[in-house]
Fold these 2 entries.
Entry 1:
Amino acid sequence: MTSTRTTPRPVTPVALLAASLEDVVRRLDEAEARPDGVALDPALGSEIRRAAALAAGLDPYTAALSTPESPALRALSERTAAEDWAGDGAGLEQEMLSGHLEGQLLKTLVHATRARKVLEIGMFTGYSALAMAEAVQEVAGEEGVVVACEIDERVAALAQECFEASPAGDRIDVHVGPALDTLHALADAGARFDLVFLDADKAGYVDYLRALLDTGLLARRGLLVVDNTLMQGEPWTGGTSSANGEAIAAFNQVLADDPRVEQVVLPVRDGVTLVRRTAG
Ligand SMILES: C[S@@+](CC[C@H](N)C(=O)[O-])C[C@H]1O[C@@H](n2cnc3c(N)ncnc32)[C@H](O)[C@@H]1O
């Protein structure tokens, strides 16, 4: 992977909404500037502009008012943005990185649950793993651990380099390989996790959920945090649904029907579902 920085494309429902409304406002401005342009009701025009401002300002506002990321997380984010993902060939892209707001949410959840053992399924360049490692280090010191699963060797090596340059990086234990195999090996070894962050291949989410609940990898009072459960709005806008959109819609229904859990879907970034084990 060589270095070429590009601006991330919109990948969340709010960012897509903002981009869409920005385009509507631009076309409105162009139409109004034309001498023969169709005159729009001024009240409708100002309502459209207000809707565009509401959507465009939400992410920057929530980020600005949340605790800033650590220098180590910022460095990891910048390193990820500087990679040439287009030439990667493995389908990885910088937009996969969760980032400041979601990282801060994960840190808060680790603190709130006093989690000492954390499992991440889908690490990429390590942003969320490092965010949770910073929190487990504060909660449990040297007893705190984040086990992070990643299938791609090159991206795992990049993450490991960043961890080695980070104060909390040595709390992270990286397992390279298909996450389902790692989960079964961990379960066979009797591992239990207080908090699990699920963020790997969307087609595998149902299998990961079953492995976590059936084997007891998710501790009795453990918290499961699932990313991308709104999948760019595809589950409810339909029409252009991708394989990932269909996988997430199916996963959300499986989760909603599972009597062993209670869950809440939060419209943070691309959707974050918090799952609490209630039985089984
Ligand atoms: C959305 S990214 C994870 C982003 C990361 N959690 C973060 O916040 O920066 C998904 C990652 O899951 C990995 N992945 C996909 N399929 C996998 C599998 N079967 N086992 C383990 N990792 C997998 C991909 O290589 C990719 O790096």
Note: The first helix runs from residue 13 to 33.
Entry 2:
Amino acid sequence: MSAVVALRRTRQPAPQPARLALLGTGGVGSAFVARYARLRANGTALPEVAWICNARTQVAGTDDLSAALTQARAAPRRHGGFPPWAEGESPRPGDIVVDATASETVADWHPEWLARGIHVVTANKLGTGGDLGRAQAIADAARQAGSRYGDSATVGAGLPLLRSLRALGEGGDRIHSIEGVLSGSLAWLFGQFDGSRPFSALLREAQASGYTEPDPRIDLSGEDVRRKLLILSRAAGFAVSGHEVVVESLMPAGPAAADAADVDVGWETLDALLAARHAAAVAAGRRLCFVGRFDADAGSQVGLRALPAGHPLCAGRGTDNRVVIHSDRYRDRPLVIQGPGAGTEVTAAALLDDVLSIAHR
Ligand SMILES: NC(=O)C1=CN([C@@H]2O[C@H](COP(=O)(O)OP(=O)(O)OC[C@H]3O[C@@H](n4cnc5c(N)ncnc54)[C@H](O)[C@@H]3O)[C@@H](O)[C@H]2O)C=CC1
Ligand SMILES: N[C@@H](CC=O)C(=O)O
């Protein structure tokens, strides 16, 4: 006769629903809130936004997210001290932090959150495109804690670049090279620049359209492309350090040395410089393209190139990124991925795609 032993069950607390914390209420953060509200209104199940934060304040999420966003954006400047979100209630395991800042401080928190079981979704490239140690700490923390790192907004504003590289690696392919136009703002600028309007005027337009970094020097110095190339090559399995990427900067000395607040002051110094490069390229039947290249054997470079007008890298339009990947299976004919690679709306959409993929897993 068998005995059925009733085991007394220890009562498990009901799992708490995941919440969202949005850090950053600039162009991308605001577009995130607008898209979030649209998706919710259409019936998409999304975690509640518990906090909206920026460098100045933290506002509790309410049903009226647009009002919470307005309140956060209107908060007065603050000087020194911990960021407001670091002083309040912490997210708990299972929550999702969305990083729509360009902040080193916030990027430094990525490994810490992941280690605590908090998922991170980011447009901020500094987490995996900056210091190699931090990028490795992010990967280790996510693996050990089982938390997720949504990074599709960091390169190509959500184009299927990182996921394609990872799929190739998982399928046993070694990546040979990754080359392309990786800056949406510079693609747009060099596509528009025909000598009829000063480069500085176009730059201000790109800035107003939300294509550039908060500090456009990050684009013009090639730093943004260096970060993206590092993110891509690291995702392809190569432990590349920033100093291994040879970068040609477009920055003239004046704006390079200016305070961030005065950064608009010297853009006119770019005009003559780039007009001369443009005229020389046109005279040779070429087009200016700002290109990043990672080669598994020959290293990495970033810089402005004058390419034959029919060159495959010149085929994009507007803010298009165009990336050419060679791997074991794509040895002779590469995989080519092209599409809009900058802009607050596509970037916010990429962030929400990552949130949805984590929330609905
Ligand atoms: N604009 C685009 O096309 C794309 C942008 N990105 C990335 O998105 C991020 C945001 O870009 P934007 O919205 O244009 O910048 P933005 O300058 O308009 O906004 C940045 C926000 O971050 C906040 N912030 C700064 N330090 C903070 C801190 N310590 N704690 C909390 N909040 C802090 C600021 O208060 C501000 O609200 C950047 O990392 C950028 O590289 C990524 C892909 C495409
Ligand atoms: N400033 C960046 C924005 C997206 O990453 C770019 O120009 O591509």
Note: The chain has two domains: 19-159+345-359, 171-340.
